[in-house]
Amino acid sequence: MLKIDRLDAIGRLRNAERRINALEQRVSELSLLDAVTGLPNHRHFEDRLSQSLLVAQRHGHIVAFLLMDLDRFKRVNDLLGHSGGDEVLRLVGQRLQEALRQGDTLACMGGDRFLVLLPEIKDVVAAARVGQKLLEALQAPFRAGSRELDLTASIGVCVYPNDGMDPHVLEAHAESALVRAKERGGGRIECFTSTLNEVSLERQELESCLRSALQNGELQMYYQPQFFMDGRLAGAEALMRWNHPLLGSVPPVKFIPLAEESRLILPIGEWALRETCGQMAKWQAISPSPLLLAVNVSVLQFANGDWDACVARALADTGLDPGCLELELTESMVMRQGHEDLAPLHRLREIGTRIAIDDFGTGYSSLGYLQRLPITTLKLDQSFIAALTSEDPGLSSEAIVRAVIQLAHSLNLTVVAEGVETEGQRDMLELLGCDCLQGFLLGRPLPADAFEAMLEFMSTKQFLKKAARGQEEVKVVRAVPAGRGRGAR
């Protein structure tokens, strides 16, 4: 009996040991997984990365490291709560996993950050293609409860051995590339290259100069006139120029992206808005008819949260009528925003401000959003205008331009053609029913004093035309014999 009890005790002890070992194994496994998504966590990812680098070193493989961050995910947590946000993260993880190869590793770094390891890849271009597949996997809306959410992400890419030999160096370089993708508006991929290091010093020096440009009065606003089809002045688009005492004229294509990356676009953009609104308010007194001021809005201004209040303050302080201000946003920028992010547009339309979609036709070109958004104007991209009069029917954009104009007019939208440079383009646009024109054929961007001189000349010319027309009408009336005029019986 004693022997049986002892054997039973030994059996129970062994069963307990097995259960403990199984629990320890399970705890060990869970320690390598993200609690929300069930994907490998940061620690597990680092282990796999280290192993992949050792294999790559022996066989001469290229290893790619991708760091992904969901854009503006905080609004999802604010909208759905953390439990709803966690459910969305699980759905994101599932979609990303389906877009990868079997040997690739997807991990969750915690929060809304994901890591991707491509242990054997051809080159950085191939890695960027994988990144594009991941972005495309997020394009379809996510359903959480009764809500549908649109998500975008930013991705930083680096590769071993070109961008680093050590896991920590690779992660730091992927982070640098990710930051650049975020600064450029999100929803995009940036690759870390040696060029980033080569230009960093120049970029820092240029950024330092740009920080003092506003205080030193080096920034200046130019105004490119816009005309109605009958030749009357409709308004102007405000364009920024930078004249540095040593660097000379710095092209906008160089300093505007830098201003956005460094977030200097926020104070500079607010200054430009006030400057141009104040100037246009003065010009309204000179012009015989109201003029429209078109001002470009950057991605950062749009996403800043209080830019509609900033616009309202500028209008109130300068006295410019809200109906004389048109804010220009690119269609790709608008399409990346969630429904809640578009609320400022609706508030600005409520006070009378006009909203234009710039470079129309070069981005998503989704027709559905034209009805949902509170826009008033479509600006046809100059690439369509350049191809408008092409002799090759296969290259001509006439059919596209005609369709856009008809669509816009059916939605009561104004159409402005950018980049008009030839008489043939102007004649074709008039034939197709375009509303307004802008381009070098009609007028180049002018500083404020030159634009004001042009406005005074055109106003005087228009006044003289009206006066001459009035004198002709008087002569006609006097020439009609008594009893033979209009209404005589």
TrEMBL record:
InterPro entries: Biofilm_reg_signaling (IPR052155), EAL_dom (IPR001633), EAL_sf (IPR035919), GGDEF_dom (IPR000160), Nucleotide_cyclase (IPR029787), Rev_trsase/Diguanyl_cyclase (IPR043128). Residues 6-33 form a coiled coil. Residues 61-194 form the GGDEF domain. CDD domains: EAL (cd01948), GGDEF (cd01949). Residues 203-459 form the EAL domain. It comes from the Bacteria. This is EAL domain-containing protein. The lineage of its organism: Bacteria, Pseudomonadati, Acidobacteriota, Holophagae, Holophagales.
